[in-house]
Structures are given as C-alpha cells and as structure tokens.
Design a protein that fits this description.
Radius of gyration: 30 Å
Structural class: alpha/beta
Largest sheet: 14 strands, mixed
Number of helices: 19
Number of strands: 30
Shape: elongated
Distance between the termini: 81 Å
Helix content: 25-40%
Strand content: 25-35%
Length: 712
C-alpha cells in the first residue's frame, strides 16, 4: 500500500486496519472524503497543538489527560475516550476531542484499558482529584469496539455520566442486563451516535433489510447478523426510552422518511442536512417532553470506519447541553444565562431577501472580550434553495464599542422563504432559509453567547402581514380572491404575480403564493432597490379547466378579470402606468391572461409555462396579441409536471409570428443542481423559476422596461 507523503504514521494505518478497515486506502480516502482535515486528524500529535497541555499517567492500565494550558476559571466538563486494552490510548486522540480541550471547552481523558469499567471509574476518580472536573458534566465516548464499551459502561453506571457518544458502531444492548437498562431509563441518559455511511459493518441505514442492502462499504465482508434491521431498530428504541423520548413502531421507522431519515434509516422528531467541511451530514434528533433534543444520530456521507474530523464537534454541540443533578441523580438540561440583552443583524441586499454580514450583540455588561477569537464561533445556517444547513465562519470581531460585541460573518440568508421539496399535489413546500444558530465555545462570566434566529431583535418574517387579502367582484366578470402589497411611495411600478393553476384560496395555497416569490419582492431588502406594488391572484377554478374552446373561454374570462383588477389597482395606488409587469409560473403563466392585458404590461416573464396545455393549438392565436410585449421565457429541460416542449412551441410560434423582443433560457440538469434543485426529483424539476428569482440580472431586465404610451 502506498503511504508516502500523506502525513499519517504507519502505526495509525495499522490501527485502522485492525479495527475493520482491512481494505482501507488512505490515498483514495483522503482524496474523496475530508482530505486535509482527515489527514490532520489521523496524523494528529496532541503535543503539537497550541494551547493544549498533555499529561500521561501510569495507573490502572495507563491514561492520558488533555487540558487547556491556561487555568480554567471554573470547573470544566470531562469527556472520557475509550477503546479496548489492545489499542494504544494515544490513538484515542483521533476521536477529535483534544482540539476542544485546547479551546478551553472541556477536559479530555483517554483510557488504556477502556474495556474495563473498573479502570474507567478508577481513572475518573483520579481525574476529579487532579483536575478541575465538573462532576455533574462527565461524558464517555468511544470508537468502534470502544463505542460499545462506552455504551456498556454508561448503562452500568448512569449515575456517573450525563451522556454517551458512540462512533462507528451501533450498540443494541445484547451485553447489558435488563436491570441496567431500567436504571438508566429511571435516571435518564443523553445519547449521541455518529457513523459513516460506508462503515465497515454497514451500520446505516438502521432499517436495512436483506432486500434493501447497505451502500458499498470500505470493508468487503458481509454485514454481521447482529446488525440486522430488527436489532438496530429495537436498540434505537431502547436508547429513545432511556434518553426520555418516545419509542416508534417498525412501520414509523421505515415509511415516508425525509432525506436525512432515509440515510440514517429511522424516523426522528427533528431532522437536518448540514454541509460541514464540504460534506453532507444527515442528522436526526429525538426530543423530550420539553421539546429539547435528548438523542442525536448523525450519518457522515461517505465516511468509512474511522472517526470523521467533524464528529467531536457534532457530538459536543449536543452533549454539552446536559448535566447530572448531584442531589437527585437525574439527567437535566442546561439552560445557560445569556450574556446579551439583544442581538441585531447587519444585512445587505440580495434578490432572495436579506443577507447577514454581521451580528451586533448588546451585552449585559462591559465584559472582558480580549479572550474571544473568530475561531470560537460556529455559524450553522440555511443559505440557499437546497435544504442543507451550511457551516459559515466568523471572519472578524469588533470590540471597539464598550458593551457591544460585533461579529463579522461569511454571508448567509436571513429573510427569504423558498420552495423546498418541489410540488406535492400542486403545492410546493417551503423552508425558511433564515433559520440559523450561532455556537460559541467560550462564555463570558459563565454566560452564553449562543443564539438562534429567534433571539434577533427588530427582524422577523412578516410577509403574510404585508399582503392584504381581498376579493375582486364586478358585474359581468369572473370573481376571484387575491392578495395585494402596497409599497410606500408614489408613482411606483406594479408587479402582477401568478403562481399556477389549482391555487384556490385556502391555507396551504396562501403559503404557496406568498412563499413562492411575491413575498421576496415585498421584503425590505428588495424594496430598497426595486420599490413596487404587488398583486397575487388566486386561480378561481379547482384543477385544470376543460379542454379546447370551453377551457379557453373560461381562461379568457379570468384574464379579463385580472386585467381589470390590475388597471383598477394601478389607478387607486397612483402607480406608474408605464411600468406594469407580469410574472407567471406554471399554470398561472397563461398566455390568455397576458393577451387580456396587452395594453397594460411593459414586460412579462413566463416561467415553466403550460402553454398549449390543451394540445390542440387552440391557445396559439393568443400569441399574435402579445407581439409588442417584451418577453422573458424560461423552462427546465427535464421539467416533469409541465414538459419543456410547450415553451419550445411557444418560442417557435413567436418567431414565426415576428416577435422581435423575447429571450428564452432553458435550464440544464447541471444548472438545476448548481442552483440547489435535484434534477432526479420529478416534482422538483418544476422549480426552475427559483433560479430566475435568485438572479439580479432578471430584475434588472424586468424593471428596465416601460410602455411607450399611457393607459387610461
């Protein structure tokens, strides 16, 4: 095996082979998974880590302590790392907790004879005598067989540990007595499990059956029978009960699972997909009666049977929220006091909403901030149309104003709502891309700098509050419901925004229209650049209209009604009659609407249109009526609900009829993927309008047009 120039000691490679990676290829793995970060972890020498003090001890089979060099101001949590007596205890540095010790977050101890509960408890007693250990916050963690040992020890002595972390394994209780399990359930025990999707034993997905094989693994051997779906799911249920969550049925753990749940192989109360160091992490959490997480499972995409460089931080992010009550012995959640009165976001404009560039804390008092560094902070945020939580960095700290701490951050989205899973029965789901968490490794006088979006002052999602519902009714015309946003200012443009057929007025579709794009234009960031009024109508007929002439007659009647509303609204608001724009997507981008308002619109965007839905050519004559309106057409080449051939036909006929000012863009699967849309999701392929709505050039094109004549 070629091992030169990759910086991993041969003894480490031999250790990895012994614990199951018999076909482990370091060259291939480092190229394809975490690269330099994994190389650094596998070749780690804790003696070289800045800010870390390492002390070896010979008692009870030997143990090593890793502490922050600077004396702690208060007792620190302790994480015990174990394997079995055959593994050098310094190999446990590769669990990754030593870096957290260097940051001052905890004390880490690695045990030589980790398979012995007596050795572990004896070393814990010695560590508490020698070092500033907080006895209420002691945790145990291990990799592979060490993970099984750590779980077994925690179940045997739950009174000593507030939580257990297993890495690269799934402990399903075959080695624990029933009385141990009942005692752990009585006291409570937090549980964290982090494994790679290519583990040697194919741990994930937990619900794997013989007919549903695990993905390809580093180790070529057949998955052991003790990791059957029944064993894994029953084991997970016991961990749920011990941690204080509800157990689930086999059907619940195998049906209608989200992307994160599919990877793990079970249902969870909360799920997330996070991108960390460029790689996806699928996370599921169960919650207790108070709604807080008590159990976490994480699948590291592509990870083989060695600890990922992200595992320790993911585990500690979860475990650090627990303690063992010294009086009752019961597990408790830690709810730290906050060091700030309020936090405001510094934002800038982006087409999909506001982008955070900084966060300004107003502190409770004038704390000493000199010890804080950007590396102490982690930003976890949704940032694009893909429902993936990305990790963003803090790039700088401003301490110049007394009582104020300002973090300069890599950009992430604050205010926007966008489609998430594509069309489901005609109604797109949505995700708030403004959700985020800030985690700080340090405290100020014991008080926390952690925050979530809900902690921000002066910022909230209020799109639905900005739109006023109303109903259009006029003799001889079709009545329908709509919502309207009236911008501040005079002589402003009007945008008519339609989202698709089947959008009758109900709670689900209210979210559909407001989340799908109109709300983005009503946001403060957008309005600061393109102030405009917005009209968003409901489609008054459930489902699709009848075919042929009868359907055209109904759509034409609806088009005349919407055109009348636009004209009426523009006059009421004192809008600029030369700047009225049409945006339509899917079934709402009907050319009959545009033809009915041909004397109104300065420009129109038609996205994923169902032009010629009737397949009989009956809609083609309407194209002749819109030849003077500048058009922007777009469609995804793999659009499933509305095939691209329909827009191609419209373009061909527009050229044939002599239209001189239209643009057409057809999105490839590669462009969809780059924009966060999965081209293999048939419903999601209909979401290509999101790519238009995220593009500044699209808005420059739209708002640059004016009509040459004034309407009455």
């Amino acid at each position: 095996m070629e091992t030169r120039n990759i910086g991993i000691p041969e003894e480490t490679l031999e250790f990895l082979r012994k614990v199951g990676n018999s076909s482990f290829s370091p060259q291939q793995y480092l190229k394809g998974t975490f690269g330099d970060e994994q190389r650094e972890l596998l070749g780690i020498d804790a003696n070289q880590i800045f800010g870390l003090k390492v002390e070896d001890h010979g008692e009870l089979g030997g143990w090593t302590a890793y502490l922050p060099k600077e004396a702690a101001q208060q007792p620190l949590p302790l994480v015990i790392g174990v394997y079995d007596a055959m593994a050098p205890r310094r190999e446990m540095e590769k669990l990754g907790f030593v870096r957290l010790a260097a940051q001052g977050q905890l004390i880490h101890v690695t045990v030589g004879d980790g398979n012995s509960l007596a050795a572990v408890t004896g070393i814990l007693e010695l560590a508490e005598k020698l070092y500033p250990v907080d006895p209420e916050r002691v945790f145990i963690a291990g990799h592979s067989f060490g993970g099984s040992s750590s779980a077994r020890h925690a179940l045997k002595r739950p009174d000593l540990f507030a939580g257990v972390c297993v890495l690269g394994t799934e402990y399903y209780f075959a080695d624990s007595a029933r009385e141990d399990i009942e005692r752990a359930k009585e006291l409570g025990l937090s549980f964290c499990m982090i494994c790679g999707t290519n583990e040697v034993n194919g741990v994930f997905p937990l619900n794997r059956d013989p007919e549903r094989p695990a993905p390809p693994r580093v180790h070529p051997d057949v998955t052991p029978p003790y990791l059957s779906a029944d064993n894994c799911l029953s084991g997970l249920n016991l961990w749920r009960e011990i941690a204080g969550a509800k157990a689930r049925t086999r059907e619940e753990d195998t049906s209608d699972l989200s992307p994160a749940e599919e990877k793990i192989g079970a249902r969870f109360e909360k799920t997330a997909v996070r991108e960390i160091l460029g790689h996806l992490h699928y996370i599921g959490e169960e919650t207790g009666e108070d709604g807080s997480a008590v159990l976490r499972c994480a699948a590291v995409d592509g990870g083989p049977h060695c600890v990922a460089p992200t595992a320790a931080a993911l585990a500690w992010e979860f475990l650090r929220g627990f303690r063992r009550d010294p009086e009752t012995g019961m597990l408790k959640r830690i709810v730290p006091e906050k060091a700030y009165r309020s936090v405001r976001a510094e934002t800038t404009f982006a087409p999909l909403g506001q982008v955070v560039t900084g966060l300004r804390y107003e502190l409770l008092e004038d704390y000493d901030l000199s010890d804080l560094s950007p590396e102490d902070f982690t930003v976890c945020a949704f940032t694009d149309m893909n429902p993936v939580m990305h990790t963003r960095r803090v790039t700088g700290i401003d301490r110049s104003v007394p009582g104020v701490l300002t973090l300069l951050t890599e950009e992430f989205m604050l205010d926007a709502r966008i489609p998430r899973y594509g069309l489901i029965n005609g109604h797109p789901g949505s995700v708030s891309v403004g959700e985020f968490r800030i985690l700080c490794a340090k405290t100020l006088s014991g008080k926390s700098l952690d925050l979530t979006r809900s902690d921000l002052s002066g910022v909230k999602l209020e799109y639905t509050e900005k739109f006023v519902p109303a109903r259009f009714e006029r003799d001889g015309m079709m009545a329908f419901d709509y919502v309207a946003y009236r911008a501040k200012g005079e002589h402003l443009p009007v945008v008519f925004y339609s989202v698709g057929s089947g959008a009758d007025n109900n709670a689900d579709n209210n979210q559909q229209i407001l989340n799908y794009g109109a709300c983005l234009m009503a946001g403060e960031a957008f309005q600061s650049v393109y102030p405009c009024h917005i009209l968003a109508p409901w489609f008054p007929m459930p489902g699709h209209p009848p075919q042929g002439a009868e359907g055209n007659a109904k759509l034409e009647a609806f088009g005349k009604s919407t055109a009348a509303l636009v004209r009426q609204f523009a006059l009421e608001t004192g809008a600029d009659l030369s700047r009225i724009y049409f945006i339509g997507t899917g079934g709402g981008a009907l050319y009959q609407h545009l033809a009915a308002g041909k004397d109104l619109y300065a420009a129109a965007a038609m996205m994923t249109s169902v032009f010629d839905f009737f397949n009989d050519g009956s809609e083609i004559p309407y194209l002749r009526e819109i030849l003077e309106i500048p058009l922007y057409l777009s469609h995804a080449q793999s659009d499933y609900p509305c095939p691209v051939r329909r827009t191609r036909l419209a373009c061909r006929k527009l050229r044939e009829f002599g239209h001189r000012d239209f643009t057409y863009h057809e999105y490839s699967d590669e462009e969809l993927a780059r924009g966060g849309i999965d081209p293999s999701n048939l419903a999601g392929t209909h979401d290509s309008p999101n790519l238009n709505l995220a593009e500044p050039e699209f808005y420059r094109w739209l708002f640059s047009h004016r009509r040459n004549r004034t309407q009455s």
